[in-house]
Amino acid sequence: MALMATPEQTQTMVCYRHPRNETAVTCSNCGRPICPECMVFAPVGIKCPECAGTPTGAKKAAVRARSYADVGTDFIVTKVLLAANIVVFLAQVVQSGSLTNPFGELFVRGALYGPAVANGDWYRLVSCAFLHGSVLHIFFNMLMLWWFGRPLEALLGRGRFLAVYFISILAGSAGALLVSPDVPTIGASGAVFGILGAGLVLERSRINVFGGSALIIIVLNLALSFTLSSVSIGGHVGGLIGGALCVFAFSAFGRGHAVYGRFNALTAVGLLAIAVGSVAIAYFKVRGYA
Description:
There is one protein chain. This protein has helices spanning 7-10, 49-52, 57-73, 76-96, 105-110, 114-118, 124-127, 135-156, 158-179, 189-204, 214-227, 233-250, 265-286; strands at residues 40-41, 46-47. By secondary structure, the chain is mainly alpha-helical. It has a two-stranded antiparallel sheet with strand order 1-2. A hairpin with a 4-residue loop joins strand 1 (40-41) and strand 2. The longest helix has 22 residues, at 135-156.
């Protein structure tokens, strides 16, 4: 039998090939929402054209649609974020005159630091995520972004992936300030943990992102976070929570599908609430440092 959506989901779930068509039916194999035009009645359940595996015009159209989507996405957001981080690190190296100690003016003005934030440098909540302290630091963060950012961007699309990334930065900064407000903090790891947190929630909802290994990856990385002395535990945990909450917002907090559901007012309010809540946590933590 094909999976049926709840009455609430009926209002928000749309066909993955025809976004204007609302539906309550999902493919019995992959779980993607399908409208009557895309339904293929198989011996067991109703399937989408791709999962049905029949050489029909519907399948060819689906393949073309997926190819166009791949070209349109092409992991462009992940690539731009990678490039931005690398360019900023190179600027740090040039400005400081050192590859092993890139702590020049950019670091001083951009690192997350409680007293500086309390004095009005709120941009540091974001700027800190594009600064790194060493070649190894940026290498591992960018490697994680490349490994896990691409599949999440391909699944969520550019806009939602960007929301996860930047809201996770804010949540990670809030977490870092909660744990160590007087220690300068830099690095994209909060955003990377947000990507992992989003993948974990999706995989717990039976939406494959990282091959079902999100939980193991998170556990291993958290173990390293508590082992290494130079790691911002608050930043990692905060980013993880921020990314997970973003996926709940995408699903309109359980009323729709996290990936294929419509982006409605409730989703927008939810994302805004996570971002504002992160900034508010940072504010109440650092206000005594001014």
